[in-house]
Specification:
Layout lengths: L3 H14 L6 H15 L3 E8 L3 E8 L10 E3 L3 H9 L3 E3 L21 E9 L2 E10 L7 H21 L14 E9 L2 E7 L15 H26 L7 H18 L2 H12 L4 H17 L4 H21 L15 E4 L4 H10 L3 E4 L7 H9 L3 E4 L3 H4 L5 E5 L4 E4 L3 H24 L13 E6 L6 H6 L4 E5 L1 H7 L5 H15 L4 E4 L27 H6 L1 H15 L3 E6 L5 H15 L8 E8 L8 H5 L4 E4 L1 H8 L18 H17 L3 E3 L7 H9 L4 E4 L1 H12 L3 H13 L8 H10 L5
Parallel strand pairs: 8-9, 9-10, 10-11, 14-15, 14-21, 15-16, 16-17, 17-18, 18-19, 19-20
Antiparallel strand pairs: 1-2, 1-6, 2-3, 4-5, 5-6, 7-11, 7-13, 8-12, 12-13
Helix pairs in contact: 1-2, 1-4, 5-7, 5-9, 5-10, 7-8, 8-9, 10-11, 16-18, 18-19
The chain binds phosphoenolpyruvate (PEP) and magnesium ion.
Length: 751
């Protein structure tokens, strides 16, 4: 393909003469120019017409008679797919892609390879730019970059011809409900505030790359200073607790690391060299990163996307001479609706007084979610489409506890929620009373309730919830948050903080569970069909023992003579457990002082271990069942596939029998057993686990007091025979959720 500089220069020339596309001929000229420069056999421009149709508006290479005739709905065919997902498609054999939709009038069957790049501006998809060639080939990174640059310039031309969508029609006046996932608990009612449209770079190409580079560097420095100032000002808001302050540092340090990443600045610099303005170069690089990170399913890594978008918006604002994003002042008690939100943005908005937040692409482990919990702001993730359906100032109710948001709620609903808020305040006061009491069922069985944590920020929750300890410390999270493997002294410092904060309460440290889609930046994505079953977790630790040994040494150093409990994730065989334990013992021989006690356990996540229980239990000091992975492998159901959510649950007879079998084996062998998967955090499942004889549950902090309250009302002695009978007669049942729920309801148990 041509040099990007020449292509941009030619496009600039084109734009200088035609600042807006006047008609089909202009678009056709543009398609010809692009096809010629890119040496592609086809270059087509599809434009969005109405809300969900894409129409072939110009083509060089396909049959001219298909222009204006070939149409695809959003999501239909490869063009519709690129438009709907906002992602670039790069396919050597397009016609065999499952989404391919054949349109005979185009004559496109002659072309094997296809590159489809969405044309987006300010969050809207204006069209799709498609390049095709006869020979099957995957377009290389430079070619993709070039077409993406053209798409960005094309967006400006199309935006000048397509009116902004201002009228959403009747639907915009009606109440609407969206569901999502609770990121931080609570209910809040208030006017909506939208962060405003993505800043759009108006000057896209520049004559003087050096001047642009200087502008970029000045804006970069101003942005860094602004971030430092923001963090200095807002840190105290995160609570005076030592752990909270330490953890805020962790998330905000990670953010600073990304902010200061010279690699990012360098890539923007390169884009400037190719002829773009500083603004357009920032937008281009942010767009590329966005595309790359969209494919990541791991929530912690996806969160880095929010960090990057936050930074890109901040840098664009800084280039524009401003600093803040969104309006300076908002109505008190407003609810922020954002597609993505970085930690610094959340601090900004908190300073302006928001009372609740919805993050369309947010997840519970995300930075903004962690900060929202620390700040006590109810937050909801998911709720796709809510940003597009709302207008500034409209009323909304976030019910994070039920995972929903109501836009323009009817009056009765509003009143209902006002009552619910009052009731919740009263109930929380009751739960707070439970905090300092040990967790017991109504008939006196002690059930240990522990926390799942991964960031120092969450340590404050031990005291806030009165937890019995930490049942799962996910050590990889600090690394994912920092974007790198932390060296031994820094790891030791993190673990020391955890043990200091936990005091006498037990902590189960889990060794690194990286790999699969939990990838550190810079590591090449694995060439694996099934990353969840691939080279991940302990498998990496055993193949790269230096990494695991460094972590084990850090844990031993942190213990410094105190008690230490370590468990290994994704153990499939007793031999793996032995090998991992041998590495630990080799390190322990060198570290002084030795821990007061050293307990070594395993997560139970891989079904193969179920068939080796008696032998396994002779070697381990404790077992923790990770229901998230165990369920996905038991039922061969990807835990992150939304289509499968709810299809298999812990209350299926097979799952209950599995847990009961492990419980009995551990009881016989006198090996402590806990459950630390998400299932333990849901009251009905927690109740059932207690009914199966599990006496230690580990969960995220928001679930702990509600579960303690539920257990305090539970008569375990009557639940056990009920469950036994139910399981005995369960053949042919799908989930036993219904009869178990009915049993609980009849006894007035609250969920
Ligand atoms: C699990 O698999 O249940 C578990 C707790 O580990 P993670 O969710 O971190 O994979
Ligand atoms: Mg797991």
């Amino acid at each position: 393909m041509s040099s990007p500089r020449r292509l941009i220069a030619r496009l600039r020339n084109f734009m200088a003469h035609r600042p807006a596309l006047q008609g089909k001929d202009d678009l056709l000229d543009l398609a010809r120019l692009i096809a010629g420069e890119l040496v592609s056999e086809v270059c087509s421009v599809y434009v969005t017409t109405g809300s969900d149709t894409l129409e072939l508006a110009a083509t060089e290479g396909l049959r001219p008679q298909s222009v204006g005739r070939t149409r695809l709905r959003m999501g239909e065919g490869l063009v519709g797919l690129a438009a709907a997902t906002g992602e670039t498609l790069n396919l050597p054999d397009a016609q065999n892609h499952p989404a391919f939709a054949y349109r005979p009038e185009t004559g496109e069957d002659a072309f094997a390879s296809l590159l489809a790049v969405p044309v987006r501006r300010a969050g809207r998809t204006l069209g799709v730019l498609v390049v095709q060639n006869r020979t099957p080939r995957r377009y290389d990174a430079d070619e993709v970059e070039e077409v993406q640059t053209v798409a960005m310039l094309l967006a400006e031309l199309l935006a000048a011809t397509q009116p902004e969508r201002t009228d959403l029609g009747l639907a915009a006046a009606l109440p609407r409900r969206f569901s999502g996932a609770a990121l931080a608990p609570g209910i809040v009612l208030g006017p909506v505030v939208l962060p405003g449209r993505t800043r759009v770079a108006h000057r896209l190409v520049a004559d003087d790359p050096q001047a642009e580079q200087l502008r970029l560097e000045a804006a970069w420095a101003a942005m860094q200073a602004g971030i430092d100032q923001l963090f200095r000002d807002r840190m105290p808001e995160l609570g005076g607790r030592k752990a909270d302050a330490a953890a805020s540092r962790e998330i905000l340090d990670a953010y600073r690391l990304i902010a200061g990443d010279a690699g990012w600045l360098k890539r923007v610099g390169e884009a400037i060299t190719s002829g773009l303005s500083a603004e357009a170069a920032v937008a281009r690089v942010a767009g590329e990163l966005r595309d790359r990170m969209r494919r990541v399913t791991d929530p912690y890594l996806r969160e880095r996307l929010a960090d990057l978008e936050d930074l890109a918006a901040r840098l664009l604002a800084s280039l524009d001479g401003g600093s803040a994003i969104g309006p300076e002042t908002i109505q008190p008690g407003a609810i922020l609706l954002a597609r993505r939100l970085g930690p610094a943005e959340l601090l900004d908005w908190h300073a302006r007084g928001i009372a609740g937040v919805v993050i369309e692409e947010g997840s519970a482990g995300g930075h903004a979610a962690v900060l929202a919990r620390a700040l006590g702001i109810p937050a909801l993730g998911g709720a796709r489409g809510v940003c597009d359906s709302a207008s500034d100032g409209e009323q909304a109710v976030i019910d994070a506890d039920e995972g929903q948001i109501f836009l323009r709620p009817a009056e009765e609903l509003r009143t209902g929620y006002l009552h619910a808020i009052a009731a919740r305040t009263a109930r929380l006061a009751g739960w707070a009373g439970l905090r300092d009491q040990p967790s017991r069922t109504k008939d006196g069985t002690r059930i240990q309730l522990m926390l799942n944590v991964g960031l120092a920020m969450e340590l404050g929750q031990i005291a806030a919830t009165g937890a019995d300890g930490i049942g799962l410390f996910r050590t990889e999270i600090a690394m994912l948050a920092r974007g790198a493997i932390v060296d031994t002294p820094d790891q030791a410092a993190i673990y020391t903080r955890v043990l200091d904060e936990a005091g006498d309460r037990p902590v189960l440290f889990r060794t690194l569970d990286l790999g699969g889609d939990k990838l550190l930046p810079g590591s090449p994505p694995p060439e694996e069909e099934n990353p969840a079953m691939g080279w991940r977790s302990l498998r990496i630790g055993l193949d790269r023992p230096a990494l695991l040994r460094r972590q084990l040494r850090a844990l031993l150093l942190a213990a410094g003579g105190r008690k230490l409990s370590i468990m290994f994730p994704m153990v499939a065989t007793i031999a793996e457990f032995r090998a991992a334990k041998a590495l630990l013992m080799a390190e322990a021989a060198h570290v002084r002082p030795s821990p007061q006690s050293l307990r070594v356990g395993t997560m139970l996540e891989i079904p193969a271990l179920l068939f080796q229980l008696p032998a396994l239990l002779r070697e381990v000091d404790f077992v923790s069942i990770g229901t998230n992975d165990l369920m996905q492998f038991l039922f061969a159901a990807d835990r992150s596939a939304p289509k499968l959510a709810g299809r298999y649950d812990l209350l299926l007879p097979a799952a209950l029998d599995t847990i009961a079998m492990v419980q009995q084996a551990c009881e016989t062998a006198e090996i402590p057993l806990s459950v630390c998967g998400e299932a333990a955090s849901r009251p009905l499942e927690a109740m059932t686990l207690a009914g199966l004889g599990i006496t230690s549950l580990s969960m995220p902090a928001p679930s702990l007091l509600p579960i303690k309250a539920m257990l305090a009302d539970l008569d375990l002695a009557s639940l056990r025979p009920f469950l036994t009978a139910l399981r005995r007669n369960a053949s042919g049942h799908a989930s036993l959720r219904e009869p178990i729920t009915a049993w609980a309801r009849e006894r007035g148990l609250e969920f």
